[in-house]
């Protein structure tokens, strides 16, 4: 559920965060607040306005910090009827060159600091930003947590009433786990771009109810006897069911393909159910549609982040024919004696053969990403209302490694069944993947010779180690024999 859905939930969430985290003690947060600025415009619980794409684009150019903050808080600051809003709106109308950058920077940051007093997680993040800016011009790196390692995400709560049934408009998205979005946006920082390849999104338009329905129907499916489920298994014609002992002893999954998710789900249930749960097809159709819209939106933002106007330049030519499919995964770890923790591998280390993957994991958590720095496994903590997005191999290749596909896995720490839904957004099979020269950049090394998407998928599927379940081989292995060239 998106935070802010119920009044009760909201206050609990805010209270919890304020109790557990400190406040940013900044001299400028109160005294330097511009008199024209009206903090009440973003009171928790009062809906914030949707962002406009040109505003985000503009902010991305100014600084990832601003873009992230705008994404988190919406454009209330831009439309608050104050001087700042007219400065920003005017500047956008007259072109980016006319921004009074220094003033805009100061006002925006002051706004952020003010907000941070009410949003302690953001507060912590801004503090990290400030420190980093002091040390260098580099915008951001991942946030270090106190114990063993790094949280691959920072959930910035967006206390916004969300109409989960409304269609997502292009400029409506996005509150994104900040550290990881920054990893994406910070194209000036090579090491950051190579860092995680994972980030979180909220405000994605999928309601808790929809997940609950998928949960209950999926359990109805996975609870069937294995001989029934195997009618959809690897030796069947339909091959939508992956039984245990292929990926791991504890993993099984059901695949539903787009663009017609309804008929794909129907094909599977027709084979196995006498009394067909038609609602299941409708629910999966709804989920598939939402993920499709979301994927397009994320792709456009990713392109925008890769370069100025890259969304308008490359979306139609390269990403318009993308398609999606989803896997509902159920993990059933061995039931040890009550209360005892297990650490079984639910899904081995792999990279995804997609452009992007959007993962819903239930509250048992368990998704982990491997640090490229020291090989340690980092938890991607589950947080209600968030979806995890990760970059897949195909986008890594298309972006010439500017966006990275990270190795990840699932560990089963709790002796409870775990449900996840992975939505893979992929290039069409016949697409020749070749990073445009503008993406590679003048004088930069080109890492991949052109290759046909289906050849890569075959390479992964025909190698025992390269299958999505196991890994070992990634897009890098695929191009090993290709000559590297520079642009
Ligand atoms: O179950 C999960 O959380 C992740 C699944 C996954 O990585 C995949 O299906 O590729
Ligand atoms: Fe995956």
TrEMBL record:
Natural source organism? Lactuca virosa
Has UniProt tagged this entry with the keyword Iron? yes
Q: Provide the protein name.
A: Fe2OG dioxygenase domain-containing protein
Pfam families for this protein? 2OG-FeII_Oxy (PF03171), DIOX_N (PF14226)
Q: Does the keyword Iron apply?
A: yes
Q: Which residues form the Fe2OG dioxygenase domain?
A: 322-428
Report the sequence similarity comment from the record: Belongs to the iron/ascorbate-dependent oxidoreductase family.
- Select a single GO molecular function from the record's annotations and give it: oxidoreductase activity, acting on paired donors, with incorporation or reduction of molecular oxygen
InterPro entries in alphabetical order: DIOX_N, IPNS-like_FE2OG_OXY, IPNS-like_sf, Oxoglu/Fe-dep_dioxygenase_dom
Keyword list (alphabetical) reads: Iron, Metal-binding, Oxidoreductase
Which residues lie in Basic and acidic residues bias regions?
1-17
| Start and end residues of each stretch annotated as Disordered | 1-38
């Amino acid at each position: 559920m998106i935070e802010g859905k119920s009044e009760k939930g909201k206050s609990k969430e805010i209270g919890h965060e304020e109790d557990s985290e400190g406040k940013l003690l900044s001299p400028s947060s109160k005294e330097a607040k511009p008199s024209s600025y009206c903090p009440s415009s973003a009171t928790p619980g009062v809906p914030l306005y949707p962002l406009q794409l040109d505003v985000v684009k503009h902010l991305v150019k100014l600084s990832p910090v601003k873009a992230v903050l705008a994404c988190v808080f919406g454009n209330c600051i831009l439309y608050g009827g104050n001087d700042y809003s007219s400065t920003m709106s005017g500047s956008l109308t007259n072109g980016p060159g006319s921004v009074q950058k220094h003033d805009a920077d100061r006002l925006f940051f002051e706004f952020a600091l003010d907000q941070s007093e009410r949003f302690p997680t953001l507060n912590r993040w801004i503090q990290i930003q400030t420190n980093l800016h002091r040390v260098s011009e580099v915008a951001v790196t991942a946030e270090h947590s106190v114990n063993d390692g790094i949280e691959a995400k920072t959930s910035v709560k967006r206390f916004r009433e969300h109409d989960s049934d409304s269609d997502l408009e292009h400029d409506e998205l996005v509150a994104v786990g900040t550290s990881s979005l920054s990893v994406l946006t910070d194209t000036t920082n090579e090491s950051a771009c190579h860092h995680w390849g994972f980030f979180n999104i909220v405000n994605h338009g999928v309601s808790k109810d929809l997940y609950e329905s998928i949960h209950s129907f999926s359990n109805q499916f996975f609870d069937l006897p294995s001989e029934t489920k195997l009618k959809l298994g690897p030796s069947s014609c339909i091959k939508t069911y992956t039984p245990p002992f292929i990926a791991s002893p504890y993993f099984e999954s059901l695949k539903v393909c787009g663009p017609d998710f309804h008929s794909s789900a129907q094909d599977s249930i027709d084979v196995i159910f006498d009394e067909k749960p038609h609602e299941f097809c409708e629910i999966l159709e709804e989920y598939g549609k939402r993920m499709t819209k979301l994927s397009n939106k994320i792709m456009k933002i990713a392109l925008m982040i890769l370069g100025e106007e890259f969304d308008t330049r490359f979306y139609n030519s390269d990403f318009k024919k993308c398609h999606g499919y989803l896997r509902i995964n159920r993990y059933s770890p061995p039931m040890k004696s009550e209360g005892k923790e297990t650490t079984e591998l639910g899904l081995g280390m792999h990279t995804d053969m997609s452009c992007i993957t959007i993962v819903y994991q239930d509250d048992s958590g368990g998704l982990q990403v491997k640090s490229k720095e020291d090989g340690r496994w980092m938890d991607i903590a589950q947080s209600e209302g968030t979806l995890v997005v990760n970059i897949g191999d195909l986008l890594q290749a298309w972006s010439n490694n500017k966006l990275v596909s990270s190795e990840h896995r699932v560990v089963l720490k709790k002796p409870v069944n775990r449900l996840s839904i992975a939505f893979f957004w992929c290039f069409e099979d016949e697409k020749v993947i070749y990073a445009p020269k503008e993406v590679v950049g003048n004088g930069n090394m080109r890492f991949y010779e052109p290759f046909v998407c289906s050849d890569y998928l075959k390479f992964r599927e025909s190698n025992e180690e390269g299958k999505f379940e196991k890994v070992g081989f990634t897009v890098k292995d695929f191009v090993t024999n290709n000559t590297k060239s520079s642009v």
